[in-house]
Amino acid sequence: MMQAAVRIFAEKGYQAATVRDIVEAAGVAIGTFYFYFPDKETLFVHLYEETADFLLQTIGQSLNSRATMPKQYQTALNAYVNIAVYEPAIIQLLLIGGVGAVPALEEKRAAFRERLTQVWQRPLLQALDKNQIAAQNDRRTAEALTGAFDEVILNLLKQPDPGEDASNTVHDMTQFAIRATAYRGE
Amino acid sequence: MMQAAVRIFAEKGYQAATVRDIVEAAGVAIGTFYFYFPDKETLFVHLYEETADFLLQTIGQSLNSRATMPKQYQTALNAYVNIAVYEPAIIQLLLIGGVGAVPALEEKRAAFRERLTQVWQRPLLQALDKNQIAAQNDRRTAEALTGAFDEVILNLLKQPDPGEDASNTVHDMTQFAIRATAYRGE
Amino acid sequence: MMQAAVRIFAEKGYQAATVRDIVEAAGVAIGTFYFYFPDKETLFVHLYEETADFLLQTIGQSLNSRATMPKQYQTALNAYVNIAVYEPAIIQLLLIGGVGAVPALEEKRAAFRERLTQVWQRPLLQALDKNQIAAQNDRRTAEALTGAFDEVILNLLKQPDPGEDASNTVHDMTQFAIRATAYRGE
Amino acid sequence: MMQAAVRIFAEKGYQAATVRDIVEAAGVAIGTFYFYFPDKETLFVHLYEETADFLLQTIGQSLNSRATMPKQYQTALNAYVNIAVYEPAIIQLLLIGGVGAVPALEEKRAAFRERLTQVWQRPLLQALDKNQIAAQNDRRTAEALTGAFDEVILNLLKQPDPGEDASNTVHDMTQFAIRATAYRGE
DNA sequence: TATGAATGAGAATTCATTCAT
DNA sequence: TATGAATGAATTCTCATTCAT
User: Fold this and answer.
1) Which end of chain D has the least Cβ crowding within 10 Å, N or C?
2) Hey, are the CB atoms on C176 and D140 less than 8 Å from each other?
3) Is residue B33 situated within a structural domain?
């Protein structure tokens, strides 16, 4: 039922998704929903947090290597795109599903954006330490990259066959990041 | 009443905003709403399109000069940030208000994203023509810049006093765009 | 609609009475209910308090004369029985409708019982002052009379034609009160 | 489980008490409830009747002595108050728990009130036979005493420590009954 | 005997929309 | 033009009851 819920929430967003939609997608009765979850909001928050944690951890781990900044971004973007292609609902839930919902959600969403920005900022800080990129407002660069990656991925998902263009997308985004940070190598 | 509607839709999003909210904010009766607009959805779509047109035109005009690409982006981003600071409702309506709403909206929203991407892509195409930026997937760069700008602006609006940081934000985004496109001047 | 609500609440009690029952009895739509009242509980509390005030005031005024205690009780019991016969819903609402309901109600109910007891206690206190009744625990006598009168009235309302026996009931209850207080006259 | 049910029904009343409340209080599963009882209503009616029988029998036996009317009432009221103090759930179930519930209950409740009235009426009839009390509408006196006793006992149970005031209450009620029946002794 | 996951009818409440004035 | 009382479909959530294990 949780898979069905993720799918429905991803498709319609929190407000438009009804409990009936979810249980119908899961093939169970309404009562069953309330047997497992206290209410719609709690489930959504739970799903949102769990999904956010998964995404942040996956991207974060890809960035943990000692490789160069380009390699780090490439690896992490590859992981991100893979999730988008094979589990698009996850991306849609995080990037679309929780917008304009209840206040409790708005807060979670803001926290997720913040953590995501900080994840993408890490390679920047390391590269700055090693003097491999130009001096810049690294926080703002991180914000910009965060928005850039998400937008490109959402555009990728709009295509009829996202998988086909996945590796190109990773390549383009990596190059974009290298340029945008003025990476000058070792 | 339309101003009130923009404000309410921007604050709460399409779903959460009720017709009652809007008419109360406008100081009229519910019946008056339905005298002027056929229904809530039509009004929202109308407002969304009108607002999108305004934003696209404002940004587009700022890009129409014969100036260099950096100057173009700087001017346009300045206009964008000004709107965000002085009419935050417009930005919130476009970037947040219409997410996860009715299908008819989703379509308009997609069209707006597409047009916005094409607007930001124009300086790129001109610069490529003049061989002022490196060869690149300019469509994807445009998508990335579109997402980058929006994310930075939404972060700006989260600050207690967005106006204070406005010019810095314009500067940072402009530099980001210059780097991200590998602009090498004339 | 309020009359219909009193009737339904009196018939079924707070819990068993549904909003649908009420609006059907009133011949309006469900939405109309919520146009006039914020929710079922608020309406019930309002009705309960208003009805309690009415009953207490009616009985209280009947006791306000300078007459002798028997005359006071007779007049007040006559008023009480009249309400029971001509507006049985009022009595049922107060004595039955609010039992075992929400906590907010339980409190109102307790307050009503307390006030009713105090009303019936007043003639006792005056008579004690004038040394017309034997020394006794007047508070407890008042409680007992309160319960006694209510029980007799509820039994009266169970009869096929309560009106027929009304004056006898008033007489019997008055005599009961005279005996129970050991009234010895002037 | 039946003890738990009595306690829960007494606390919350028939409507508000859920089967889940009962099985949780009893430490068994929901299925177990339906293995032993056909449904909630049947259990309640059964419990109500059983409890009513117990109370009526206890009071009835206390009245069966050949003692004088005052002694009879004193003994029976003592038994009644003892039950109230040591098993308040029994009193609450009978006097409150079943109000405003299902129709089947209303009937049982009416039957219980009728039997209780008849029990309290018995000493009156004997005393009338022996010419020890004044001529009066003995049925109505019995109703009044029934209501009086219940009201006083419910007030007793509202006190923080009902046991403390128990013997006073028995004394006061006995005196009340003696006065109310105009008992003149042998 | 005992369990507890699963069910779905029914209850309260919301809100877009209509229409007589 | 403007009003706002009235509507009822749709939504969330509860809870008595069933049944396979």
Assistant:
1) C
2) yes
3) no
Q: Which of the other chains make 3 or more beta carbon contacts under 8 angstroms with chain A?
A: B
CATH number at residue A112: 1.10.357.10
Q: Give how far D155 is from chain C: nearest CA, Å.
A: 8
CB under 8 Å to B87, separation ≥6 — which residues? none
Q: Kindly determine whether residue D181 and residue C179, on different chains, have CB atoms separated by under 8 Å.
A: yes
Helix (H) or strand (E) holding C104: helix C103-129
Q: Which residues contact A107 (CB under 8 A, 6 or more apart)?
A: none
Name the least confident of C50-54, C103-107, C148-152, D148-152. C103-107
- Asked if residue C2 is part of any domain, the answer here is no
Residue nearest to nucleotide E10 (CA to C1'): C18
Q: Do chains A and B touch (3 or more CB pairs under 8 A)?
A: yes
Residue A27 in domain: no
The count of structural domains within chain B is: 1
Q: Which of D61, D62, D89 is nearest to D73 (CA)?
A: D62
Q: Is the pLDDT of residue C99 over 90?
A: no
pTM for the model stands at 0.90
Nucleotides of E under 7 A from a protein CB: 1-20
Distance of alpha carbon B24 from alpha carbon A170, whole angstroms:
49
Give the whole-angstrom CA distance, residue D61 versus residue D172: 21
Whether residues A100 and B137 touch (CB distance < 8 A) is answered with no
CA of C84 to C1' of E11 (A): 31
Q: Tokens representing D184?
A: 């003149």
Instruction: Please check the confidence at residue B31 and state whether its pLDDT lies above 70.
Output: yes
DSSP chain B: -HHHHHHHHHHHHHHH--HHHHHHHHT--HHHHHHH-S-HHHHHHHHHHHHHHHHHHHHHHHT-SSS-HHHHHHHHHHHHHHHHHH-HHHHHIIIIITTT--HHHHHHHHHHHHHHHHHHHHHHHHHHHTT-B----HHHHHHHHHHHHHHHHHHHHHSS-GGGGHHHHHHHHHHHHHHHTTB---
Of all nucleotides in the shown strands, which has a C1' nearest the CA of A30?
A: E8
Q: Is C159 within the bounds of a domain? A: yes
CA separation for the pair D186, D180 (Å, rounded): 17
A53-79 tens-digit pLDDT: 999 999 999 998 888 999 999 999 999
pLDDT tens profile D34-76: 999 999 999 999 999 999 999 999 999 999 888 899 999 999 9
Range of the domain at D164: 40-180
Share of chain A above pLDDT 70, in %: 98
pLDDT digits (tens, 9 = 90+) for C20-52: 999 999 999 999 999 999 999 999 999 999 999
Interface test mutation site (partner D, options C11, C132, C143, C173, max chain D beta carbons within 10 A)? C143
- Which of A107, A118, A140, A184 is the best mutation test for B, with the most CBs of B within 10 A? A140
Q: Is the pLDDT of residue D123 over 70?
A: yes
